[in-house]
Amino acid sequence: MNNILYIGSYTPNNNAGITVAEFNHQNGQLVELKTISELPDTSFLAVTKDKSYLLAVSEHDVNGELGCFDINDPKSPRFINKQSTLGGSPCHINLSANKAFVSNYGSGNVSAFSLTENKLLPAYADVQHQGQGGDLQRQASAHAHASQLSVDEQFLVVADLGIDALKVYRVSEKQLSLVFSASLPAGAGPRHLTFNMDGDKLYLGNELNSEVTVFAFNPKKGELDLLQTISSLPNDNQTESYIAEVTLSNDGGYLYVSNRGHDSIAIFSVDAQTGLLTVVTLTETGGLFPRHFVLSPDQNWLLVAHQNSDYLTVFKRDNCSGLLTKTDNKLAVKHAVCLCFLEG
Fold first, then answer.
1. 55 CB-contact burial (10 Å; exposed 0-12 / middle 13-18 / buried 19+)
2. Which of 47, 80, 94, 109 is the most buried if burial means most Cβ atoms within 10 Å?
3. Phi-psi group of 174: left, alpha or beta (phi > 0 → left; psi -120 to 50 → alpha; rest → beta)
4. How far apart are CA 256 and CA 292, in angstroms?
5. From CA 144, how far away is CA 311, in angstroms rounded?
6. C-alpha–C-alpha distance, residues 162 and 175, integer Å
7. Are 323 and 254 in contact (CB under 8 A)?
8. Nearest Cα to Cα of residue 68 among 7, 118, 9
9. DSSP-derived secondary structure for 170-195
10. 83 alpha-carbon distance from chain centroid
11. Separation between Cα atoms, residue 57 and residue 50, nearest integer Å
């Protein structure tokens, strides 16, 4: 009946970096269980595939850190250790069975870690991006923002907001080797991305121009081909807004994208043959600056973290139409910026 939800937060007021909550998937209600303060400014969370560990980045401007928690008791994570991310402002974690990849926004590099039993080892690889983008106020240097592994975990695709590019690396036990680079329009600001289940389509949210880009992905060569670009905002929008999170439903039928500023979730249907997107609707999130959201494990709910409203909102999701219906369920969490279910 209940699922464990981990919530990451910025900590400007000495609030907790991680909140543990329980989500009732029958009625959509949230209850806070515990707060954890070992890591400040916990901007992103990820649970290992075996559900043994919770990883979290501490978004220090200069010396970023990756922390590891034992979740043998899921309701009470136990801090184990932390390692330097070899960069500043780490903001995203992507996991394989035994590796963690961290994107460092401030310094524009990606670091790779090995996961062993009861310990997070120091980074074994690090790649540094160089360059700038079309908006020199936001893109004067590289800003690695997120990464996604290919389905077979042979390639890592990194979205770099600062240089308007996707970088594709071949993953090995010792290094990350660049094999392909795809350029985006100047000022696009690639942020978050996700593969479809088959691993032959990649969906990218561009923060600065509020567009979603669809790529075909060659799983043998690691190459990307542009298929479509579509806006996440209405044609008459006059509000300053920035794409944040991008998530596909488990059945691959719908893509959800959050708009910070417009404060909405854009819903797209996904063509089963081509992978191309069609706008279904936009749903107001009921709060300010929806930086992150997550679908519940049963796909019947969508939860939104509002960074500037200090609470989470809960939506009921129709699996057939993809549409969202706002509920009255909320949970107060200061500066919440990341949501991560134990099961997912």
1. buried
2. 109
3. alpha
4. 11
5. 27
6. 23
7. no
8. 118
9. EE-SS-EEEEEEEE--TT--EEEEEE
10. 21
11. 19
Question: How confident is the model over 186-214, as pLDDT tens digits?
Answer: 999 999 999 999 999 999 999 999 999 99
Nearest Cα to Cα of residue 164 among 213, 199, 225: 213
Which residue pairs, CB below 8 angstroms and at least 24 apart, start in 317-320? 319/249, 319/251
Residue with tokens 């509002």: 306
Residues 87, 106 contacting (CB under 8 angstroms): yes
Say what the pLDDT of residue 148 is. Answer: 98
Q: CA-CA distance, 305 to 133, in Å (whole number)?
A: 29
Rg (CA), the chain: 18
pLDDT in tens, 31-48: 999 999 999 999 999 999
Tokens 């000022």 sit on residue: 187
Overall pTM surpassing 0.90 (yes/no): yes
Whole-number Å distance between alpha carbons of 211 and 190:
9
Distance CA(77)–CA(116), nearest Å, equals 17
Token pair of 169 as six digits? 């690396």
Angle at 31 between CA 30 and CA 34, to 5 degrees: 130
CA geometry: angle 64, 68, 74, nearest 5 deg:
135
